[in-house]
Amino acid sequence: MTEMTETSPGWLTPDELEATRARMPILYIDAVPVRVDEAGVVTRVGLLLRIGSGGKVSRALVSGRVLHHERVRDALMRHLEKDLGPVALPQVPASPQPFTIAEYFPTQGVTPYHDPRQHAVSLAYVVPVAGDCRPRQDALDLVWFTPQEAASPLVQQEMTGGQGVLLKQALAHVGCLP
Amino acid sequence: MTEMTETSPGWLTPDELEATRARMPILYIDAVPVRVDEAGVVTRVGLLLRIGSGGKVSRALVSGRVLHHERVRDALMRHLEKDLGPVALPQVPASPQPFTIAEYFPTQGVTPYHDPRQHAVSLAYVVPVAGDCRPRQDALDLVWFTPQEAASPLVQQEMTGGQGVLLKQALAHVGCLP
Amino acid sequence: MTEMTETSPGWLTPDELEATRARMPILYIDAVPVRVDEAGVVTRVGLLLRIGSGGKVSRALVSGRVLHHERVRDALMRHLEKDLGPVALPQVPASPQPFTIAEYFPTQGVTPYHDPRQHAVSLAYVVPVAGDCRPRQDALDLVWFTPQEAASPLVQQEMTGGQGVLLKQALAHVGCLP
Amino acid sequence: MTEMTETSPGWLTPDELEATRARMPILYIDAVPVRVDEAGVVTRVGLLLRIGSGGKVSRALVSGRVLHHERVRDALMRHLEKDLGPVALPQVPASPQPFTIAEYFPTQGVTPYHDPRQHAVSLAYVVPVAGDCRPRQDALDLVWFTPQEAASPLVQQEMTGGQGVLLKQALAHVGCLP
Asked: φ, ψ for residue C107 (rounded to 5)?
């Protein structure tokens, strides 16, 4: 795309770029860790248990930013290792095609996803995990749910920002939505 | 995701956010405009003809940034209208799942896609276009190619930044790669 | 695949073929008719209203067999025209990739889908419909539901054979699962 | 779908079923075995080397029928084990969504795929393989190619029935089409 710098309306000049950089959508990944059986059927879904700033318990997907000059699949690996530990053995998909995108808006109701701090657009993947998971940092625990449990109102209401919807979309994609 | 602001390692504090915002991947869309027959078979692929800063002719997909607080499908509509005119009648896909993502790196060779100015991650869609196309702004023309022609070396070498590869991926996705 | 007739274990001899033909999976398509807004967002889902042999009311997707020497997209067109009438103007997807496959087993519980008469494997597509729909033949009516209504227990319990699950998978795929 | 047996035009009566069973599309799977690196990038594609009935050498994907009352993922496992041996450790995808479908017609030119013996519709998947591959039965060998080699004219011309096109579609799907 070298040649179209100054002419293409789809590409900004350095000045325009600088001016708009302060407010732009931020690229994220969401990963749904799963256990699969020998034939690839999802048997369990892993959710992180977190304690929020107000002491409120919530369950979350593996989620985080893509950094400058980082490939999406490397961002997936980094966040999975950060949240599940170094021996989780995640199988990042061969295809870069996400099963969906989740558009987290700072305003409620534009999409099913919401993030009060920013406009984040997340590429969502289902990632089979074969090894031992040892949650680190702020995550208290990783709990494995059956697809039935993961889609239940009990678990859904413990998820925030629309991640419960995203989880159900993942279950639908792997053919395990109850 | 309200409750996990301060604790989640996947989310940055306001200070960290400010510091990294200057260098982060920029979210783009790429659209491949196509003509389809009654049964949905792609019969033609539309490519923009542009004259670059050095006078070099190139062919390009419809491409551009997603703005802050703009849905991806609204960005698709905006760039399609900008490049194809107001009566092109694009049929933006019902599903937000892109057929692939194109990671344009400022460094050559990390991925098949390259953009010397920035790290852009583009969500790529095939978009059937039913109406009249009237290229505007800097685009000289829109030319409709058969899938066979679009994948030919002649057309491929007129595309830059890896968009030729992305075009072939689109053709593969719709079952029209020769 | 001409050369591997007699040698490939994946291909049967004419005799074996004859013997197994009596019992093999039957290829189907399932189409979820939708109304979309200008930006491609699904606003309504169309369900057929049928009266079953026992007088029981049920709601159904557009569904049917793929015939010998018929392309999958032609089967989609044929069943859509048969069920929605000749001026429904369905937009069959450019890509042949189904959003999922539904494996209807004659035995309950193998998959979420069930058909007591046969083993059918169905390729499932979401199909935007732009024109007037006039249900024909045995379908009494076509009713347009919001995504919210379509996923509700009320509508779900009127669908049989697992088509309610398939409908929710379609809604998840287009980002409209409540 | 119990209630709609006699009424739905999409479903045949037992007599019609019997009459048409002799000539109907046959359900297949095609699997593209791949080696991936730690981040999921495809580094090699595995192709079977076969000697056809006329002594002609050809390269082929793992391919074969889905049997009555067999799940698609079990058919994938069976054909992969049959062609790659019992310790290949294939990772059948969690999602049943194929990356494309290949419609092999007995008549040339209807689609890019051709099978002179029958109308077969194949669900195509990319399958990472982690273990040792020991081709069995009629396959002489399994050769691992780089994506570059797999898409080259040399390899493409050794593939028959349109499997070369299908292989390129698989490469496009995983972002490795040269």
From this structure: -95, 135
pTM of the model: 0.89
CA-to-CA distance for C21 and A12, rounded, in angstroms? 61
How many of the other CB atoms lie within 10 Å of CB of C47? 26
Residues of C with Cβ-Cβ distance to A172 under 8 angstroms: 100, 168-169, 171-173, 177
pLDDT score of B38 more than 70: yes
Measured CA distances, C90 to B84, C84, C127, C145 (Å): 24, 9, 6, 17
pLDDT digits (tens, 9 = 90+) for A58-112: 999 999 999 999 999 999 999 999 999 999 999 999 999 999 999 999 999 999 9
Between B and C, how many CB-CB pairs are < 8 A? Answer: 59
pLDDT band at residue A5, thresholds of 50, 70 and 90?
very low
Q: Which of D36, D94, D174 sits opposite A40 (nearest CB)?
A: D94
Structure-token pair, residue B103: 């990671």
φ, ψ for residue B170, nearest 5 deg: -65, -45
CA distance C56 to C47: 16
DSSP chain A: -GGGTTT-TTS--HHHHHHHHTS-PEEEEEEEEEEE-TTS-EEEEEEEEEE-TTS-EEEE-EEEEPPTT--HHHHHHHHHHHHH-TT--B---SS---SEEEEEESSTTSSSEE-TT--EEEEEEEEEB-S-----TT--EEEEE-HHHHTSHHHHTTB-TTHHHHHHHHHHHTT---
Asked if the model's pLDDT at residue D3 lies above 80, the reply is no
Shortest Cα distance, chain B CAs vs residue A69, angstroms: 6
Closest CA to B69 of A122, A24, A28, A109: A24
Is the four-CA dihedral D29, D34, D36, D40 of positive or negative sign? negative
CA distance B110 to chain A (A): 8
Cβ within 8 Å, pair A138-B8: yes
- How much is the ipTM here? 0.86
Q: What is the pLDDT of residue D13?
A: 59
Burial class (CB in 10 A: 0-12, 13-18, 19+), A21: middle
